[in-house]
């Protein structure tokens, strides 16, 4: 099925407006004036498989209907719909009902959400597809404000499930430090599905970049930003490190009034992950930058060697 512009007045003008939805706004009134909504709904009812390319035959320009619906879908999903003079209630209702009939964004139109060199990058105005550990692919939109968003067309059509919402909230939450609202097991699942390797990785959303630390072995707290990581790592570099630990309610970090628990030189201490360290002559343990510092939050003495 093709739309011939000489049969539908104003349709070519509309198409020119919306063919690059990232930079142009569409006026929904023009969609209804062009009768595109009737043509598209008719196409959907008949389940036609719309394919085609641009062609020019004399003075007649033929446009694949899919190209027009893709452009309108993009305008809706990237917030480029604008009604001059405001939205009359009846037009808004009609447009939302029309948008709900738009088909899902085809995965082949989306960029795969995968880490490259342990770097995740979202560019504004693009679709991204995320494939979970079960092989299901979901498409999200990089709409700005340093986040990935649910597709508005999917929301209007009732195609959004709880897992899709959680995936969108997680990737959006990376920049806004809101990932802790997502269960730790899901944080690990999503990062591993995107190919993020343990350790430090970078995340760029549009023009903002931040560094995060991923440790899949830490079941309850697999993700933190670099600043938080540094706050846990830095105390181990202190000359008086072993005197800064305490024996109060099983916690090692000192609070005012806590009784110090100095680890002695030669003590063998073990973290929650089973890794062992020996307290050296300087009263320190050799914690390298990038090590799993959270597993050292509750060290216990498991032995001693003479030094």
Task: Report on this structure.
The chain has 307 residues and is of the alpha+beta class. The chain has 3 domains: 2-99, no CATH class; 107-226, no CATH class; 238-304, no CATH class. Helix content is 29%, strand content 22%. The protein has helices at 11-18, 28-33, 36-46, 65-77, 89-99, 152-157, 162-176, 184-193, 226-233; strands at 2-4, 55-57, 60-64, 111-112, 119-122, 127-131, 137-144, 147-149, 199-205, 208-214, 223-225, 245-248, 251-253, 267-270, 276-278, 300-304. The strands form 5 sheets. It has a 4-stranded mixed β-sheet with strand order 4-6-7-8, with helices on one face. Strand 12 and strand 13 (251-253) form a beta hairpin. The longest helix is centred in the middle third of the chain and has 15 residues, at 162-176. The radius of gyration is 28 Å and the shape is elongated. The N and C termini lie far apart (84 Å). Residues 1-10, 42-61 and 246-256 have low confidence and may be disordered.
Write the layout of secondary structure elements.
Layout: E1 2-4, H1 11-18, H2 28-33, H3 36-46, E2 55-57, E3 60-64, H4 65-77, H5 89-99, E4 111-112, E5 119-122, E6 127-131, E7 137-144, E8 147-149, H6 152-157, H7 162-176, H8 184-193, E9 199-205, E10 208-214, E11 223-225, H9 226-233, E12 245-248, E13 251-253, E14 267-270, E15 276-278, E16 300-304
